[in-house]
Amino acid sequence: MIVVTRLDGRRFALNPDLIERIFESPDTTLVMADGAKYIVTESMAAIIEKIARFRAHIISLARDYSGYEDDDDVPQRPKLSLIDAPDRSPKAGK
Q1: Alpha helix (H) ranges present in 25-81?
Q2: What's the rounded Cα separation, in Å, for the pair 53 and 61?
Q3: What is the per-residue pLDDT for 62?
Q4: What does the pLDDT read at residue 13?
Q5: For residue 94, is pLDDT > 60?
Q6: Which domain holds residue 35?
Q7: Is residue 23 part of a domain?
């Protein structure tokens, strides 16, 4: 969710994945996928930056996610590790 500010100063959060269009004329208007419109004080550039930061944060959380270690009822994903393979190169003189 990103937090934006209405013209009257009230702040609210919305799902940036549901923003369909952003207009700036001169007030910034967010048009949602369901047709709802919100006029906010932030500039179009600021909204786009908030969306980019939100998405980067989600990707960062997914990258760092390690599963449900503290929940015994959820099956654990096997942990993989790199091992040294045996030397299979041809030996000289054999």
Answers
A1: 44-64
A2: 12
A3: 85
A4: 98
A5: no
A6: 2-64
A7: yes
- Please check whether residue 31 lies inside any domain of the structure: yes
Residue 50 DSSP SS3? helix
- Structurally, the chain folds into a number of domains equal to 1
Q: Which long-range contacts (CB under 8 A, 24 or more apart) does 6-12 make?
A: 6/38, 6/39, 6/40, 6/41, 7/39, 7/40, 7/41
CA distance 64 to 39: 35
User: Is 38 part of a structural domain of the chain?
Assistant: yes
Predicted pLDDT at 26: 93
| Residue 78 maps to a domain | no
- Report the pLDDT averaged over residues 62-88: 71
Integer-rounded Cα Rg, in Å, for the chain is: 25
Report pLDDT digits (tens) over 14-66.
999 999 999 999 999 999 999 999 999 999 999 999 999 999 999 998 887 76
Strand intervals (E) in 1-94: 2-5, 11-14, 19-24, 28-32, 37-40
